[in-house]
Each structure stands twice: as C-alpha cells, then as structure tokens.
Amino acid sequence: MPTGTADVLLRTEGRAGFVTLNRPRALNALTHAMVLAVDAALTAWEHDPAVETVVIEGAGERGLCAGGDIRAIHDDARAGGTASAAFWRDEYRLNARIARHPKPYVALMDGIVMGGGVGISAHGSHRVATERSRVAMPETGIGFVPDVGGTRLLGRAPGELGTHLALTGTPVGAADAILTGLADRYVPAAELPALADDLTRLPADEALARHAAEPPAGVLAGQREWIDACYAAPTVEEIVERLFDTGLPAAKEAAATLLAKSPTALKATLAVLRRSRALATLEEVLDLEYRASCAALTTPDLVEGIRAQVIDKDRDPHWTPAALEAVTDADVARYLAPPPGGDLGLAAEEETGRDPGARA
C-alpha cells in the first residue's frame, strides 16, 4: 500500500484505489509534494493486481483542483529561484504517466478544475464532469501559458474552440468540456458517491454506464461559426479585430476579455498552441510547454499577474509590454527555445523505451 500525506489521502477499497487531493481551503491546489505522492501511488498501483481502477477526487465540495500552487510560483519567480522548474518537471512527468497508465483512471471532475487540475484529470482514460464542473485553462490571465498538456487537449478540440478557450481562459461546463475533449461523461454530482461505490465492485465502464446521463446544454456548439472564423486568424491582433468586427455581443465580449490578458502570454500561447497541433505525442507537447513555462518564469508578467489576481486581488495587472503590438517576434521566440537549465526531455525518453512518466 503506498503512503499518502496530509494533502493526498490514499485508500484502497475493493477493486479500486482512491486518490483524494486534500487541500480544500486552497481548492486542492497542487504542491510539489502532492505531485510526488500521486506519482508514487500510481507507480505502486500499476503493479498491484488487487487494484484494477484508479479514482482521483478532490476533498470538499468546491472542486477537484484549482491548479498548481501559484503563490509558491510567484515567490519563486520573484526570487529568481529554480523550485518552479523542478515542480513542473515532476508535474509534467505525472501528466504523461496518467495518460499512459495501464489501468482505468477515473477522474471525478466535480466543481473547479483548472490549470494543473486539468492536467491531473483530463489525460485520464475516464473523465467525469458534473453540473458543477467549471473546467478551464486560465493561464493568460496571470501572464502564463497553458501547460500540463493543455495545449494538446485544446489543440485537438473541434475547429478553433480550443484556441478560444486557451486565449480567453473561459471556464466551461460539462457539455462544453465533453464537446472540446476535456471530459467524456456527465454524471450528476448527487450520484458521485454511488458511482464511487460501484467502482469498488465493477469495471470502470460498467460502473459509469450505470450513472452517466445527458448533460445540461452547453453554449460553444452554438458559437462555432464566429469562433472558427475569428480564431483562425494568423495573429492575436487580427483575432481581436475579427471579434469586434462581427458585431456579436458574445464575440465583442471575448475581444474585451483578450485585451485584459497579458499581451505577451496571448502571443506565446497562440504560438505554442499552433506548434503543439503538429506534434505527434503528449510527451513532445509537454517538452514544448516546459520551455514556455520556464520562459514565463523570467518575465515580469507572471509575477504581476499572480499579484493582481491572487496576492493583492485588485484585478488590475500592469502588463509589460502593455499592448499586443509591442510584443515582438523575439519575445515570443523565447517561449519556444530551450531553457537555460535544459529541456524536459520526455519525448526522448519515450523514444528510448524509458517510461516517460518515471522520474529521473
């Protein structure tokens, strides 16, 4: 039996192993120690014949996981430290391990599931959303770029829906999460305890079939026409221009949302998202995102964005540079270049036959 921590509770019941992220006051935000604890549990259960299904859930009623511990990232970035890069190395390896886990991995994506919460759930084999789900990659709002394999997930969404979600950071409910490939099934929140109980006794597919239902209607399917037309533009500036030119209230609202985000993060996100679409594996995308994350760590926008949204909560970030047209090609190229500390190297490990999710 793997050993949990105060922040990651582990238990086995019947045929299932349960991981409970246990920082409800912090919306179960991931720390480095939590990532390592989950990784160790997956390693142990992979080789335990008594565990046939892995289930991940969040403590409390507010969400599975709101992402990484961005206060810690803020402090590390201000100090010019290396803790964040080390955290991402292990977090991204965990994302890869989840995607390649040989046993059913059931993520109960109830409530808030954002950033790192998407990484720890949406790469699983069975992703369950509820009517309370709010799934998002909101990184551009803090001067960061979608990571944890998020650009692969969003890059494979129908049309330009993923581009819209990556740039605006808009949270989606169950139907839209399923439409965009961030989730598979809808189960009413009230039925999650019964589902969890069935997972201890039944194969994952059979247990889910007992509780899956039709989700409440989403909104993205009805917005495909203007989203696809606007977000197919080659630059962020033209995307914004097209959004305003539609005359549609929802499109103009999206444009206004974009103009409030970090200009550098927007341009870097578009570049990473479009490059990730051409990559064959999740490991290659995680390598690319690691480059972008390390680059963001050295920019003023990441510290400023976290300050405005999380530390001071004044919601008034002052971006550097402040306008899209002031962000140069060289600024964006930094996000695609190898970081000073070296690449993540997950794709190379996969090619040599080494488990890409295993830590060095």
Description:
The chain is α/β, with parallel strands linked by helices. The protein folds into two domains: 1-136 and 174-217, 2-enoyl-CoA Hydratase, Chain A, domain 1 (Alpha-Beta Complex), CATH 3.90.226.10; 221-347, 2-enoyl-CoA Hydratase, Chain A, domain 1. Helix content is 46%, strand content 11%. The chain has helices at residues 32-46, 70-79, 83-99, 116-119, 150-155, 161-168, 174-179, 192-199, 204-211, 224-231, 236-245, 249-259, 263-276, 282-297, 300-311, 329-333, 346-351, and strands spanning 8-13, 16-21, 53-58, 63-65, 105-109, 112-114, 126-129, 134-136, 185-186. It has a six-stranded mixed β-sheet with strand order 1-2-3-5-7-9, sandwiched between helices. It has a three-stranded parallel β-sheet with strand order 4-6-8. Helix 1 runs parallel beside helix 3 and helix 2 (70-79) packs across helix 15 (300-311). The longest helix has 17 residues, at 83-99. The chain starts with 7 loop residues before the first strand and ends in a 9-residue tail after the last helix.
